[in-house]
TrEMBL record:
Pfam families: Glyco_hydro_32C, Glyco_hydro_32N
Organism name: Acrobeloides nanus
Protein's name according to its UniProt entry: beta-fructofuranosidase
Source taxonomy: Eukaryota, Metazoa, Ecdysozoa, Nematoda, Chromadorea
Annotated EC: 3.2.1.26
Superkingdom classification of source: Eukaryota
Length: 446
């Protein structure tokens, strides 16, 4: 007989939401970032500027299948919780020869009181993927640089798969990583530097894996310093290995040390998944005024059937998460930002409870030592190691679940489709679980 203590904190919203220009609100999210209508994908340009948090996102307001040229949608918040669409909601549109095929993924930085967006543009005539910039003094209205593109060609040692610039500043110098496929068709991240965000010098590959074990193209790279180490994470296509790398498109990361003099990133051979759920991709991070490393991701996997597409909209971002390293420096951990407690309304229940349901199953298997999230018989599971107690914090919205286990050692993010909201089954295989259950009704921000 197995007895295990489970301390569960579940946050969820129950109720209706008046959708904005959509045909059905049954799966419409209530406290996650979503587009007003149409298609949303990668988070872009994460930044803090003029007293507001800014989240831009890949946006196609014309359809729910993302078939049109991409634009940058835009929301702002003073607290990382209550988001508002800017007016206009479209910050950057494809209206120049160098980006008429789409304003694709990129980043944003505060350059001496000017918010500068650095983005991928798809050229009208050549189909090349180019790096461009646009600037804003108010954080809402942007002017594209007359000298675009600032990086007019891909590296000479790479293919035309060249996209998703992420920029940061160190000791007065701007640096940029970009995803690029090598001419031998393996994934890699390349490095640039600049004094003014307009003239860029190619420094060569920051990291690559010639044996293709980390996929053929590295998208949405992020490179940053945290807790004494440098972390590189990116979206890619890794071959499945048992329970690992189960999604069609996922975020993985390396941890190591970067020397700014030699421009060498020395990292461990092993790489790891950033999230172990069904739907998590195109993650992006930024540093906020509290010196926290904050992340958003697109809750997506390319094998998922997203049922809301028939309702006139598609996709959602994760809740904001704070990144840190584990105590031994070997893993990236993610926890919900503290501000999310502002969403809490009425406490739903505060007593031991047996939770029943059949649409989502979240359980800990003592025999295998794995935490399992099962969605309509599609299983994701993670080895939790030797533990005596399992602490779970779960965010359940109209069509998503995010699980944070043992203070961010493991996270699992997944979409689901059940009208109305399903219940969650929590149980321990081959034994009995003592469950302390606390839930809050979360406010609707839209």
């Amino acid at each position: 007989m197995f007895r295990r203590s489970l301390i569960l904190l579940i946050g969820f919203w129950i109720g209706s939401n008046e959708a904005i220009n959509v045909t059905n609100s049954r799966y419409r999210q209530n406290y996650h970032i979503i587009a007003p209508t149409g298609w949303l994908n990668d988070p872009n340009g994460l930044s803090y500027f003029n007293g507001n948090y800014h989240v831009f996102f890949q946006y196609d307001p014309t359809s729910s299948n993302g078939g049109g040229p991409k634009q940058w949608g835009h929301v702002t918040s003073t607290d990382l919780v209550n988001w508002k669409y800017t007016q206009p909601t479209i910050a950057l549109a494809p209206d120049q020869s160098y980006d008429v095929g789409g304003v694709w993924t990129g980043s944003a930085v505060n350059n001496n009181g000017e918010l500068t967006a650095i983005y991928t543009g798809l050229h009208n005539n050549t189909g090349e993927q180019l790096v461009n910039i646009a600037t804003s003094t108010d954080g809402v209205t942007f002017t594209k640089y007359s000298g675009n593109p600032v990086v007019p060609t891909q590296p000479i040692d790479g293919t035309n798969q060249f996209r998703d610039p992420k920029v940061w500043k160190y000791n007065g110098v701007w640096y940029m990583v970009v995803g690029n496929q090598s001419k031998k068709n393996h994934g890699r991240t390349v490095l640039y530097q600049s004094d003014d965000l307009r003239q860029w010098t190619y420094l060569g590959p920051l990291a690559d894996e010639p044996d293709n074990r980390v996929g053929s193209m590295w998208e949405c790279p992020n490179f940053f310093y945290i807790n004494g180490k440098h972390v590189l994470f990116m979206g890619t296509d890794v071959e499945r290995d048992g329970d690992h790398f189960a999604n069609q498109g996922l975020n993985v990361y390396f941890i190591g040390d970067f020397n700014y003099e030699t421009k060498v990133f020395s990292h461990a051979v092993d790489f790891y998944e950033l999230d172990n759920g069904h739907d998590f991709y195109a993650a992006q991070m930024f540093q906020d005024p509290k010196n926290r490393t904050i992340l958003f991701a697109w809750m997506n996997s390319f094998g998922t059937n997203f049922e809301e597409m028939q309702d006139g909209w598609a996709h959602t971002l994760t809740v904001p998460r704070q990144l840190r390293l584990s105590s031994d420096g070997s893993r990236v951990q993610m926890i919900p930002v503290d501000e999310l407690t502002l969403l809490r309304g009425t406490e739903y229940i505060n007593s031991p409870i047996e939770i029943e349901g059949h649409d989502l199953r979240l359980y800990y298997d003592k025999q295998t030592g794995k935490l399992v999230l099962e969605r309509t018989k599609d299983v994701r599971q993670v080895d939790m190691g030797s533990i005596m107690q399992l602490n779970l914090r779960i965010f359940l919205d109209q069509s998503s679940i995010e699980v944070f286990a043992n203070d961010g050692n493991v996270t699992m993010s997944s979409r689901y489709y059940k009208d109305p909201i399903p219940t969650i089954t929590l149980f321990a295989e081959y034994g009995v679980a003592n469950v302390e259950f606390q839930a809050f009704r979360l406010n609707n921000i839209w």
